[in-house]
Structure prediction request, 534 residues.
Amino acid sequence: MERLIRESAAIVQVEMVKLIRDPTEIISRAIQPVLWLVVFGQVLAQVRGIHTGQLSYIAFITPGILAQSVLFSAIFYGIAVIWERDLGVVHKLLVSPALRFSLVFGKAVAAGFRGILQAVVIFLLALVMHVSLRGDPLAILAVLAAVMLGSGIFATFSLIIACIVKTRERFMGIGQLMTMPLFFASNAIYPLDLMPPWLRVVAQLNPLTYLIDALRGLMIRGGESVHGYAVDFSVLLGVFALMLFIAVRLYPTLAE
Amino acid sequence: MDNASPDTPDGFAIKTSALTRRFGNLTAADSIELNIPYGEIYGLLGANGAGKSTLIKMLTTLLSPTSGSAEVGGYDITKSPGEVRRRIGYVSQLVSADGALTGYENLRLSGKLYGLPPKVRSERIANALEFMGLADSSSRLVRTYSGGMIRRLELAQAMLHRPAILFLDEPTIGLDPVARRLVWDRLLSLRHDYGMTVLITTHDMEEAETLSDELAIMHSGRISVVGKPAELRASLGAELGRDATMDDVFVHYAGGLIHESGSFSEVAQTRRTARRLG
Prediction:
């Protein structure tokens, strides 16, 4: 256990050092949520065509936009991994005695911390847009935990895709193909009960749905988790464990 | 560098038995038999696509063999890969130092992944930077380093945990003669100080002859010849009826005809590395 923590922490440390040294990625990734909340959210709110219960439409989509931000950031983690493979960094890591699990888990945790930075941006934006946010410390901690889990899931999923496709060109195509369906087949910008039955089934199989469901209850005053937090977090943990299991097995193939 | 002496066990540092790797219909390494004693610098030569990198990848546990076996540092590469990794250092043909980190940060990462205790890690990093002439550049990002500095940093990274066996895959590719000599000097000093075994792949005949105690030449996945550089030259010279150079030896045993060898990705990779270091 000590070894796992030490090795994973080493990976997290270098990822954070690189992020702090060049935070432009965080800044550039803040632009999309701004567009969704400020432009799309406000326009659709005026239409009043989507019933969001007691919540304003902006309040309803804020957790969805946070989850989208987490998804879009984490899903392109695979590009960085392919880049590291082309440079030879992956070979260096795999020749070391570090556990494969530590190398992958470290990447997932680092993605989680990136997700938290994005959550801070969304929180601030939501406050500016007068979204009524929950301020109790337990809820905030739970939001951070959900964001870390969500980031970990999509970052490891991205790593799995990278291990399979192995080139940046192929990854870019698949990355684009994955992110939009995952986003639109979820409860990010409309409730599940507005979806046609077939789409509702797809949404129920989408881990993003459970992330957003948890965030909606934990972030927004008056918001609630439709599935219940126990289900939301169980699904997120289960999917994360599965992604880790697959990623640990595939990661060494990058060096072949 | 501080003078920690490694163990000097009997037997071979690297021992392979019919080691083979296939990729579909292509046999990249074919029944390789190698016995490399501890403490030797062993050259592995061959044209692009001869199978050198495939062999190195198998011995460093990056690639599993299709058949056959190998022991590195006394441990089987497929049954005990973790033990093998603890005992080896590796400088790949690719530039593996992270350009977005400083020289110090790259070494710190290696030290942590190899489980060096904090005090030992700090001391060794300081000594390694001093020895490699990188102490003044340690806080600079590696992307600002020259090719020679990057290679010396990678050597330092590979050596930090005092491995018994060091694998160097074309370590001086893309370097100018001055930088190349500096890397050779450091390598020979390290071998002298620590008695480590080195397996080095190279296209550079001068490098092969200067550094290698013994060498093997690969061609189409197989070992064509094994011997000491001087003996190989003498033997071929007798055959040719004139003094033979290492180039002559290489051409004779690595396939005299000009082959269309090496895949696109291999050539692209080599050029990328040469560009980055040059």
Chain B touches chain A through 29 residues (CB under 8 Å).
